[in-house]
Amino acid sequence: MSNELNQPLISVIMPCYNREGYISEAIESILDQTYTNFEFIILDNCSTDNTYEIVKEYAKKDKRIIALQNEKNKGFVYSHNKLLSLAKGKYIALMHDDDISLPKRLEKQVRYMEDNPDITVLGTLIESFPVKWMDWVIPANAELMSLLLQFHNHMAQPTNMIRAEFVKNNNIKFLEDYYYYYAFDYKFYMQILECGGKITNLDEVLLLYRFDNHSCSSKPETQKKQNLSVRTIQIENLQQFFNEEELEHIFKGINSYSFHRDSIKRKELYEVFSRMQERDANSIFSEKTYEEAIKLYVGQKTTMHIFFTINDSYTQHLCVLIASILKNSTTLDDFHFYVLHDGCLSEFSKNDIQNLRNIKEFDIDFVEVNDDRVYDCEQSSNPEMFHTSKEVYFRYILPNINENIDRLLYLDVDCIVEDSLNKFYNSDFKGKYVCVMDDGNYNSYKYYKKAFGVEHPFNAGVLLINAKKWREDSIVDNLFFNTKIFTLSKKIMYQYQDVLNHAFKDKCIKLNPKFNVQHCTLTNTTNMTSYNDHDLHFAKIKPTIIHYTGICKPWNERGVYNPLWKRYWHYIKYTPYSFLLESKYKELFAKSLVNLYGAADRTKRHLSYRLGEVLLKTRSLSSAFSLLFRLIKAIKAYKSDKIAYNAMIKIYPDLKLTKLENYSDYQESLKVKKQLTYKLGELLIKHPFTFLFRVSKVYKEWKKEKTNEFK
């Protein structure tokens, strides 16, 4: 930068406590800044390790460092306020004792603050390390940030650069009140907004934020206290717009996580922003700011072109799907539906579909497919695909149905939609042919890796298609050609999905799994997808599109093994098939209660668990003498039960129990298997003669697992 004499002084302030392992990195990251005109005030809060000794050594080495120590431990909020009062700079830059500022942080922040004198606090984006954690920091202009801060703290405190004059003139400091203590930075921002200040973030990562199992913020007790402080501030912010009942709904639903995450239901967020705008009598936030928030997080006025392929036997399911789309839409969402069929779709079916306009108006075209190439495609001999027909190949020709549209969405009719599709539909193709989601099926995962070298295959039941690019590059012709070649080469296993995965292996965009939550997504215990566990978790609890893949359809008996089977029946009441709620649904519901929730109990009837129970009850000398007899008794009881079960299913084969993986409480059965009871019994079965020599190791491993689980 220019001559140092012409540069404003920055006061970098950093409280510290017991960070001997990290503080050197934090200090050196400031000393290595490209902007050099700063004082670096470090206040130790009576560390019990060598933290302060390290700080003093650095102070000897660099005169910009001012090393101080509290007389006694007075807490981190007190330390922050003391540092604020000591700062002499035009700008005050905050820093944590275990984070790392990137070299150009101060240079870029001070330049922005000089160019934008109306900004009071400037943060930056962050990158967490060594553990990748949920990012709550967003880039937003000052007006939008003031609105979003009413709901969440979207700032990372150690990235903040503060205009010192504003804070001092308005007598703003970090509050030490109990209710704000663990979110003192969030309350600090609200005080600044109340005094007319402006807050924003640079759209650039300029700080590495340390997050690991040793971080204070990762400890459950700290998180509870922090949540209480945050909730207190949120209630203060929002009670002028919402009543108590509405606030409860907001906090339980959309306000659990930052809006930019895929854990938020867009329709609910739209309703909250709209209601807030209606009640903003004093125009605290401008109409433009509300519109910007809605566009950023919910979407924009869009006509969505959505395609389906059916025959008469699937009319009911298409009606349910369209009803779910319409019921979860917002006023931003308009629809043009295209129903592709082979010419045998009855007028009754068409009327049933068009009657859904009583939910919301839409345009619809019924398109008879006459392309011979579709009907020339051969069916797969794979038994997993027995329920499919040649209509599955209709999706190849979708971009040619309406050549005036640049993008389109294809949905299998065994789907339902649980949220507005606006943001999903308007996803950025980034020059690729299609936006897709991973297929979590274990068999297809192995098959595609071996057959096509595809590490993470996608499921072709939900496709957001770049129609313009397909037409430009003659993709439709290529798909039919490859289908013929694959058939002749006897490569076809999953039909159209094989061809599409081969064609778009490196030419697709993978979107969040919430847009195609399949049966395997809900029941798999091993993550075989390209998604992280966090995204999969929220996809399961807040899906946008539920896809009833495989043979477990919610309208048949096997479907009740899908944890989300009832959602299909929730939407059928809005269709001409609502009468089935009084018959078919009740029948399925009754059957679901018979054995749907028995996975944990079944696991406890395993021989491993029974033997483990006997072993753990052996706690006295007298019980040790009878151990062998009690073990033999448990084995005999197990064998007797097994004989009785086998005899029963010979007479009543319908009573044969399904796989544990199909139960809704399957996860509970896995927890049973992790219990010491099960592990000891399993060890005895596998190693009866060396059991005594191995039992100590098993116990230690179990203890370690429990400790990690607690953390």
TrEMBL record:
Pfam families: Glyco_transf_8, Glycos_transf_2. Residues 11-133 form the Glycosyltransferase 2-like domain. This is Putative two-domain glycosyltransferase (Family 2,8 domains). PANTHER family: GLYCOSYLTRANSFERASE, UDP-GLCNAC:BETAGAL BETA-1,3-N-ACETYLGLUCOSAMINYLTRANSFERASE-LIKE PROTEIN 1. GO terms for molecular function: hexosyltransferase activity. InterPro entries: Glyco_trans_2-like (IPR001173), Glyco_trans_8 (IPR002495), Nucleotide-diphossugar_trans (IPR029044). CDD domains: Glyco_tranf_GTA_type, GT8_A4GalT_like. Keywords: Transferase. Gene3D superfamilies: Spore Coat Polysaccharide Biosynthesis Protein SpsA, Chain A.
